């Protein structure tokens, strides 16, 4: 994937269903390892989590950057798809918001590692960041609006403000075992509740 610009101009053939499933398994495994151990985790750990050999990972993702960018996009899509699903299956809109924010926090751990990997390619990172905002701000907006309409939370907070606040609470958490960002994020989400 070193010639990503040329690859982007060529129309991609649709992947077979089993190839898409295999790639999803790899990306889920890599995301789980990145959340636990950071983006510098050994490829062998990712391979073990996915139940494949390391050669399979390198065949799909020749460089670590290729893998990290694919995980980033995969996690954005998973977060985007989770919002509406959580609204349908959660006990309340506030519960859906709380559960979605938990997924978002896991994603942010990977995103912070991605920023370090892509330092030399600022334009590439900016493109991914714009994609992240385009996909996730509308989902967070939908969750906030549903909870506000149900009378569960205050209605004067934008999705961008909430996502930025959560992001700020997560900065550096992966390097400090004495700092529990998830607990503070939980307090923030609880604090959105309207007094009964």
From TrEMBL:
Residue span, HTH tetR-type domain: 20-79
Gene3D superfamilies: Tetracycline Repressor, domain 2
Residue ranges of the annotated DNA-binding region, renumbered to this chain: 42-61
Keyword annotations from UniProtKB, A to Z: DNA-binding, Transcription, Transcription regulation
Sequence segments annotated as region (Disordered): 1-21
UniProt superkingdom: Bacteria
Cross-referenced InterPro entries: Homeodomain-like_sf (IPR009057), HTH-type_TetR-like_transc_reg (IPR050109), HTH_TetR (IPR001647), Tet_transcr_reg_TetR-rel_C_sf (IPR036271), TetR_SbtR-like_C (IPR049445)
The protein, known as: AcrR family transcriptional regulator
Source organism phylogeny: Bacteria, Bacillati, Actinomycetota, Actinomycetes, Kitasatosporales
């Amino acid at each position: 994937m070193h010639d990503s610009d040329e690859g982007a101009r060529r129309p991609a053939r649709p992947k077979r269903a089993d190839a898409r499933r295999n790639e999803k398994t790899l990306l889920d495994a890599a995301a789980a390892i990145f959340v636990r151990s950071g983006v510098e985790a050994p490829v062998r750990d990712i391979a073990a989590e996915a139940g494949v050999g390391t050669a399979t990972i390198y065949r799909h993702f020749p460089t670590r950057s290729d893998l990290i960018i694919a995980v980033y996009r995969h996690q954005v899509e998973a977060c985007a798809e989770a919002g509406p699903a959580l609204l349908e299956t959660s006990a309340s809109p506030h519960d859906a918001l709380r559960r979605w924010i938990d997924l978002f926090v896991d994603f942010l751990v990977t995103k912070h590692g991605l920023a370090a990997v892509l330092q030399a390619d600022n334009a590439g990172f900016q493109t991914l960041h714009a994609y992240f905002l385009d996909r996730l701000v509308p989902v967070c907006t939908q969750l906030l609006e549903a909870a506000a309409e149900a009378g569960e939370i205050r209605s004067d907070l934008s999705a961008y403000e909430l996502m930025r606040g959560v992001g700020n609470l997560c900065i550096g958490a992966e390097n400090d075992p004495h700092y529990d960002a998830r607990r503070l994020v939980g307090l923030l989400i609880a604090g959105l509740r309207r007094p009964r």
